[in-house]
Amino acid sequence: MDAKQISTYVSDIIEDIKNNGDKAVFKYLKKFDNVDLSKRGYRVSQKVIDDAVKRIPKLLKNVIKSSYSNILAYHKYERSQIKKRWNYVKNGLKIGQFYTPVESTGIYVPGGRFSYPSTVIMTAVPAMAAGVKRIVMVTPPKNMNDTVLFSAKLCGIKEIYCIGGVMAVGALAYGTKTLKKVDMIAGPGNAYVNEAKRQVFGRVGIDSLAGPTEVAIIADKDVPADYVVADIMAQAEHDPLAKTYLLCEAAEKISEIKKLLPKEALKQLKTELCSLNKAVGIVNNIAPEHLELLVKNYQVLLKSVKNAGAIFVGYQTPTASGDYWAGPSHVLPTNGSAKFSSGLSVMTFLKRSAHIEMSKNNKKAYKTIADFAQAESMQYHKKSAEVRYLIPSFFANRKGRTADI
Ligand SMILES: NC(=O)c1ccc[n+]([C@@H]2O[C@H](COP(=O)([O-])OP(=O)(O)OC[C@H]3O[C@@H](n4cnc5c(N)ncnc54)[C@H](O)[C@@H]3O)[C@@H](O)[C@H]2O)c1
Ligand SMILES: N[C@H](CO)Cc1c[nH]c[nH+]1
Ligand SMILES: [Zn+2]
């Protein structure tokens, strides 16, 4: 399917969910995921969650908890760096700004090809740290396993639904009898999921379009080839649509790496022989989801990077460190959207409001406002400034209703 066909296909499914709610959800669960949940429903019960938690081996629990605590610490720190409120006073005018979290969010945890318990943490923790009250997790039936449920419980998620793909996005955006509408949808997914998020944007907020994964690697002549091969394969294994780039200053290194890669991975790889400086320019144009600077002297290069979702610096830092454990969310903009958007973070779930307070002393300002309104022929905009300093009895002295505009 080309992009236009996907768009129509997705909008038909969303329309069906909008008009037929749960009935349509059950139909698509059967069609795309081959499960019949019409009797049991698609909300996961507390008992199912508690039983799953009991079955998780201690070692795995500790692995997930270690990742959770790093990711929570990072996002709590990020929250502490965002000023809650600020204001200033100038010529009697008080102006300020404050942030509030969205009240509810859906988090989409993908799960067609692989199961992603890490994505549960990478989406829920930033929302928690932002102060979102209602976090609703959706994931395809195939992905509803013990590890995913344990991760959700660790993040304090109480509402979990066994539903994925376009229908999950449609149900979150429009609501069904089972699932109450949310204000925002965050999280990565395949091309259908991303198109669905794009289409419901406006009715709900979305984070960014995080689709098939990507990595660009800038490598110097001394990089161990094994590091590059492993890091290319790591992102290629997500999806045949994943894209990988290698930009290297040494022709021999490129051919050494290519010889070590399987044929399938070569189809997903683009290579460029160029200086390290030129490589940064090319990468800024690609705007990859992940950028690895596998070079000895990375400080200068790092300063020139403008467009990348997350940057992994130095030989010792694989993309997998960010995928699982370091702290920042692994939900990052793909397909060039790092040119204008950022990875998921506390900021994703915050809204900004400005507040303005005028006083009688602002006479000159009222006059300016009235004059600007006059220039737009907006009579009542003008009056709303004038009544406050010039003609306070304008409406009170009139007989009858104010004329319709
Ligand atoms: N950028 C990131 O942060 C990030 C993180 C993790 C994963 N990913 C990416 O997320 C993607 C996950 O994709 P996925 O497919 O494995 O899981 P997914 O959850 O996005 O999609 C699976 C669901 O799609 C639906 N579906 C399947 N075929 C369909 C069809 N023909 N029409 C309509 N709906 C259909 C089904 O309901 C299925 O359950 C991968 O590309 C991976 O690289 C990105
Ligand atoms: N690389 C993916 C997109 O950033 C995230 C992920 C999850 N699990 C493994 N990797
Ligand atoms: Zn990954």
TrEMBL record:
Zn(2+) binds at Q235, H238, D323, H381. InterPro entries: Ald_DH/histidinol_DH, Histidinol_DH_CS, Histidinol_DH_monofunct, Hstdl_DH. The keyword Chloroplast does not apply. Pfam families: Histidinol_dh. GO terms for biological process: L-histidine biosynthetic process. GO terms for cellular component: cytosol. Binds 1 zinc ion per subunit. Keywords: Metal-binding, Oxidoreductase, Zinc. The active site is at E289, H290. Substrate binds at T213, Q235, H238, H290, D323, E376, H381. GO terms for molecular function: histidinol dehydrogenase activity; metal ion binding; NAD binding. Its cofactor is Zn(2+). Belongs to the histidinol dehydrogenase family. This is Histidinol dehydrogenase. It comes from Endomicrobium trichonymphae. The lineage of its organism: Bacteria, Pseudomonadati, Elusimicrobiota, Endomicrobiia, Endomicrobiales.
